[in-house]
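Quick one, tokens below:
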């Protein structure tokens, strides 16, 4: 019998983390991710999970304890949002450079200031260069599934990089949807027991991130870049295996193409807004418009070849960012523009950037219709207020 529950996205993330059998849970609550540590603390108290829950004094400490837990050889998990992720900034590249395959849920929320507790992508997007794989989810079911996949991706020996599983704050974390909770034995069969090789061991001493002079630091960063390229393949491989095992898939694990076979105009975006965009595309297609959506799931590593292939036949591609790199434009737009400009195959797809949804401003159907209208007319991008 399928165990389907109508639960909030935060609960779905906690349920998935429980099924992955983490041994250490360093947690510090921050809206809108607070429900995740609350649920995990219930699981620990009820004996549903055998893990050490560490009540740390800050998000910086949570990231530090996450690093320490992995250095000791324990599969671990944490969650955060907004200023909490920003406070972790000092530790994030240390975890990545030490090749610790950590998994963290990020309930995407606007960065202060001014103080704002609602959703945009400024927290995670601001950390996209710190060596963490970043996977963005559209639904609570996808968030549940992606947590499980994230551990398997991170722990691949040719990857060994940490993963952020990003879900829109409040829009997913606090909204109730039907979620299939997979049985423990099925998850165990998909995700094997964690057997780390890179750990602190007195019998086989190692040093992690102590000091690197100019003659070695460069090579550490180069190794992370190589691992990111390997992750592109492994995200696809793990996603294919997940689909065969559990019967659910999300494009190819990197991108999901929606009505793109004959599309001339498309929007590229990440997160829960894609659900609204699907309805607009359906509506416009009934009117004869050849429109589609490219839903980017993996922002890092960036799926270059897949985006090139998906945009070859497009006249204009609109890119909707829920973050702005102040002084320039949206970071997704910058990445896509740079990628397509480099092509030598005669590709002439125009790229139009949009800033939308900052601080929780709704990206409703009217705003998405407006974006499609702008790219169809070849106009410049705007801030979709």
């Amino acid at each position: 019998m399928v165990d389907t529950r109508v639960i909030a996205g935060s609960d779905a993330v906690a349920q998935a983390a429980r099924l992955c059998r983490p041994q250490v849970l360093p947690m510090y609550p921050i809206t809108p991710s607070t429900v995740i540590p609350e649920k995990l603390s219930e699981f620990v108290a009820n004996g549903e999970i055998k893990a050490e829950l560490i009540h740390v004094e800050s998000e910086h400490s949570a990231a530090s304890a996450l690093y320490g837990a992995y250095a000791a050889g324990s599969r671990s998990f944490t969650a955060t949002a907004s200023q909490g992720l920003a406070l972790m900034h000092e530790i994030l590249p240390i975890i990545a450079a030490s090749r610790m395959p950590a998994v963290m849920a990020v309930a995407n929320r606007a960065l202060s200031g001014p103080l704002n507790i609602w959703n945009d992508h400024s927290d995670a997007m601001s950390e996209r260069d710190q060596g963490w794989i970043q996977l963005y989810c559209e639904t609570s079911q996808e968030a549940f599934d992606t947590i499980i996949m994230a551990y398997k991706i991170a722990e691949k020996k040719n990857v060994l990089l940490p993963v952020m599983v990003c879900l829109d704050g409040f829009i997913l974390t606090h909204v109730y949807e039907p979620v299939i909770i997979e049985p423990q034995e099925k998850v165990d069969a998909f995700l094997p027991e964690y057997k780390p090789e890179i750990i602190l061991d007195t019998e086989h001493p190692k040093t992690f991130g102590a000091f690197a002079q100019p003659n070695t630091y460069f090579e550490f960063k180069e190794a992370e870049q190589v691992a990111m390229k390997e992750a592109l393949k492994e995200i696809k491989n793990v996603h294919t295996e997940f689909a065969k095992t559990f019967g659910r898939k999300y494009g190819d694990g990197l991108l999901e193409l929606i009505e793109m076979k004959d599309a001339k105009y498309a929007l590229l975006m990440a997160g829960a807004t894609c659900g609204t965009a699907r309805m607009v595309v359906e509506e416009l297609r009934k009117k004869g418009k050849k429109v589609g959506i490219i839903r980017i799931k993996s922002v890092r590593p960036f799926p270059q070849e897949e985006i090139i292939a998906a945009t070859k036949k497009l006249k204009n591609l609109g890119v909707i960012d829920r973050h702005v790199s102040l002084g320039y434009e949206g970071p997704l737009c910058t990445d896509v523009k740079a990628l397509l400009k480099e092509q030598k195959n005669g590709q002439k797809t125009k790229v139009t950037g949009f800033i939308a949804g900052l601080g929780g401003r709704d990206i409703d159907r009217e705003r998405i219709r407006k974006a499609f209208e702008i790219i169809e007319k070849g106009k410049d991008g705007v801030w979709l207020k």
